[in-house]
Amino acid sequence: MKYEAVIGLEIHVQLNSDTKMFCDCPNRPGDEPNRNTCPICLWLPGAIPRFSEEVLEKATLAALALNCEIQEENAFDQKVYYYPDLPKGFQLSQFHKPLARHGWVDIVDEEGRPKKIGIHQVHMEEDVAKLVHETEGRTPISLVDFNRAGTPLVEIVSKPDIRTPYEAMEYIKALRSQIRYVGSAECSMEQGTMRVDANISIRPRGSDEFNTKVEVKNMNSVHNVGDAIAYEITRQAERVDAGEAIVLHTRLWDPDKRITTAMRGKFEGPCVPDPSVPRITISEEWLHDVRSRLPEMPSQKVERFITQFGLTRDEAVLMSAERDLSEYFEAVTAYAVSPRTAFHWIATQLLPALKERDETIAVTAVTPERLAALLAMLEGDKVNARSARDVLSKLFESNDAPEAIVEQFGYAQVSDTSELEGIVATVLADNPQAIDDFRSGNEKALGFLIGQAMRASRGKANPKLIRDILGQKLG
Amino acid sequence: MTRDIFIHVDQDPPAAVRGGSLEGLTVSIQPNMSVRGWPTEAGSVALERYVALEDATVIGRLRNAGAVITGSTRMNELGFGVAGDTAHRAVSDGAVNVALVTDTMGEARLSAAAAALYGFKPSYGIVSRYGLIGLVPSMESFGIIAKTPTDIGAVLQAIAGHDDRDFSMSPATLDFNDPASRPATSATIGIVREALEMLDPDEARAFTAVVTRLEETGMTVRELSVEDYGLFPAVHTVVGSVEASSSAGKYDSVRYGHRAPASKNWNDMYLQSRAESFGLMVKTYLFQGAYFQFENYEAFENACRIRSRLVQQADALYKVADFILCPTLRNGMPPSDVCTVNDLYEFCASALPANVTGHPAMHIPGVLFGRETDPGFTLCAPHLGDVRLVSFASYLMNVAEGAK
User: For residue B126, what pLDDT band results from cuts at 50, 70 and 90?
Assistant: First the structure.
């Protein structure tokens, strides 16, 4: 393609503080409508906003997670526009004095090269109320649910450093992982706790000009962001090739038709310094205190998992993508289970099983302690791999110790040589053809015989011993 | 209590708290100060039938100190303007001891001056604004009108002090026991040259008489300069109207107040409801604010910059002077004639600088010459100089009483 895209993302993240931003109402937008409201978030006459320190902490942690410089002087501005979801007639946001500037996120581009995506600024703002339109009935009415009004958001504005849909998706994933690590937000696009708007323009490859951009909204998954950007790049390229000019406007991604459509021009109001929320001065001491609560970040953890546990880079990236998962992995290894076994079982058995059951690693009944006990039995030849898989699925349903489950259901591996020799003798007697095949050089026949012996033991034989005994007999 | 003074009278006030510093004191408020269960329409159709859900911080403090809140006096729409205010009449008629008013551009002092009373605006940020339905958050304050500085001081002491519900308050608190606040027998009083240059010959003569009289009572009077003094009204009107436009944005008819019937959609609902809600003065002011917000933001930024410079220049006066003396009322215009935004700014020109700077200011009625002939004057003090100012006013009153 002869064009190159210039992409910047504006990402709104809903912070998971206990309270709203300027009052003590619970930060739970999903509750029964208008339950979590008070004179301040309803902005009844005489109310004065009262800025929450908890929100400042969560926002600061998020900004630090994105390598930003926290600004000493913070202030709020009024973004003025009129809409029924905005009880004040303005939204409290930070325009002139944002919380943080000059951050970055590390990604790896399509060619496997490391790339830094710059962050212009991170600022705090309050969310608006939710409108519910009742169109059935004789008179259509609009209802307002103020539960979400005044809940805390941070907006993360990237620099126009992104060039491809792939880079955009990698940036979102890395940013999401880092913010989740510090515990400031859930960052779920599907559940609306993270909203991504993309500013896209194109230019001839090799040029360094910035052309008129188009804003695309309404993507509800990371993949949709990639698809919407790809669509928009193609659309703009076709327009430019047809000799049309790109005009500044906003488009909506239609996830069903998989296209973007132009939206009615949005009115952009002014940003006026707010006189009621006083300026916030962030002291060195306070910042130091918040900084000391930063956990080990994913990129550091990857390096440590490689050197400490001997994981490959891909494995280490997988195990550190989410903080809960990384802590789970480390907790299992702490129980004298080899890191490789722990990685293998978590990646190939536990995670799919959790997904199937719609559980999360943080709350599952399969605690690190219980998984470790199972894996210890596996490594100690007390159960074989096949039985261990069965035991794992039982761990989800019962609170019994893995040892008790093995005992109760008879999963213990048979390693008694005389018992195994008896089984092998029977198998050999029943399968003379397989013996002949093996002796005439067909290696597959050995696998068949091992399979028969395992079946005869109802899956409990130690497969390694079976193989040894067969080897001796057929020798 | 007459209906032309009071818009609401508490028929069944709670029993006064015994033993408090304000025991037995009666206080009127305005209907933009929240008292749970009281009609709180702030003189505007925009707040039609609005009843406050909780008490303003100030109300709780007054009641805890033993005061009885008797009712609310009539006020101009949203506190903008002076023509409809009746608070001073409640005091001069003897209906209450003290009236609380909203002071955004000098109202407490100007109303007091119209009735030969004391009128006081405290330092910005020492009295909680929680529950005050204001219009210009960075300039407005509860103001106090009373017959004596003693009553003003007592009320101030009861209502001042930090409130968790108002984060815009100053972290500093007033010290009512500070020995430096004891009545001074001498003080250096500054007069601002640029303020005097604005007076017409009659006003200048009256002002010079005050200065002479103060010198006779042992005060040192010094002429000082605030280079940009003439910009106070412009800064007030630009910043004030922008803040008013934002503050009044909440009157959208969605949650409370007047809603125009049968609107096609919500844009229509806003336009209709707001058109029916606001009077001409407020509309003009809101339009002006919207103009600076949307069309001439640079002028607003300049006004904010000039405001900080004015605060610095005003602060600097107090390196030399203990108090600044200025006229309160300009000659000529009675409050009832104030019916445009321009009239209002003209009327308030001498009083509004204290709202721009956040300094405390008190109107002192004609104690120096006898009340009938003397319109009185205003004394301003540095930020947090409230207690000294009240004490000094008491001293002047005593001197005058002694001279009789």
Answer: very high
**pLDDT (average), residues A5-15:** 95
CA terminus-to-terminus distance, chain B: 33
Residue range A417-474, CATH number:
1.10.10.410
Instruction: Identify the weakest region by mean pLDDT among A156-170, A296-310, B227-241.
Output: A296-310
- Tell me chain B's radius of gyration from C-alpha atoms: 21
- Asked whether the beta carbons of B150 and B142 are under 8 A apart, the reply is no
Give strand pairing partners of A239: none
Q: How far is it, in rounded angstroms, from Cα A319 to Cα A296?
A: 14
What distance in Å separates the CA atoms of residue A91 and residue A100, rounded to the nearest whole number?
19
Q: Please tell me the least confidently modeled range out of B261-270, B310-319, B370-379.
A: B370-379
Test the B interface: residue of A77, A142, A143, A276 with most B CBs within 10 Å: A276
Which of A197, A224, A203, A200 lies closest to A214 in space, CA to CA? A200
CA distance A12 to chain B (A): 24
Q: Which residue has the tokens 């809603």?
A: B259
B371: pLDDT strictly greater than 70: no
Q: In whole angstroms, what is the distance from residue B95 CA to residue B73 CA?
A: 11
Query: With an 8 Å Cβ cutoff, are B249 and A89 in contact?
Result: yes
- Reported as type and span, the H/E element at residue A343 is helix A339-345
**Is pTM beyond 0.90 here?**
no
Question: Is the CATH code 3.40.640.10 the one for domain B6-229+307-403?
Answer: no
Q: List where CATH 1.10.10.410 sits in chain A.
A: 417-474
CA dihedral defined by A367, A370, A375, A377, rounded to 10 degrees?
180
CB A186 within 8 A of CB A323: no
The encoded tokens of residue A384 equal 């074989």
Query: Is B294 close to A269, i.e. CB distance below 8 A?
Result: yes
What are the residue boundaries of the structural domains of chain B, listed by start? 6-229+307-403
The answer on pLDDT for A473 being more than 90 is no
Amino acid residing at B77: E
Across the interface, do A276 and B304 touch by the CB < 8 Å criterion? no
Q: Kindly tell me if the per-residue pLDDT of A190 is higher than 90.
A: no
User: A223-259 in b/e burial notation, b at 16+ Cβ within 10 A?
Assistant: ebbbbbbbbbbebbeeebeeeeebeeebbbbeeeeee
Confidence category of residue B373, pLDDT binned at 50, 70, 90: low
